[in-house]
Design brief:
about 0% strand; about 90 residues; mainly alpha; about 50% helix; rod-shaped; 2 domains
């Protein structure tokens, strides 16, 4: 038998008191936990979708993506821009 087992059996009152104190602290802490089913999360990014029916990705890049990127670069606080032009 390990020393912890022997100590626990010899000091039943102390182990019981420690268990009750831990239980009381747990009961006190539970109402203070803040939980939300759907928490509000702010992501520091923006997604812009610009559909262009019937155009190839090259045309979309030249006529839509590049002007949008140039306009967005002028906005204060914009650190990076990532673009994708695809068919569909």
């Amino acid at each position: 038998m390990s020393w912890l087992s022997r100590f626990s059996l010899a000091q039943r009152a102390l182990i019981g008191l420690i268990s009750i104190v831990a239980l009381v602290f747990g009961v006190i802490a539970i109402p203070q936990l803040k939980q939300q089913l759907l928490p509000t999360i702010e992501l520091p990014m923006v997604s812009v979708l610009a559909p262009y029916q019937g155009a190839s990705p090259d045309v979309v890049e030249k006529q839509v993506v590049e002007p949008l990127e140039n306009s967005l670069k002028a906005v204060d606080g914009v650190e990076s821009i990532t673009s994708t032009a695809s068919e569909g």
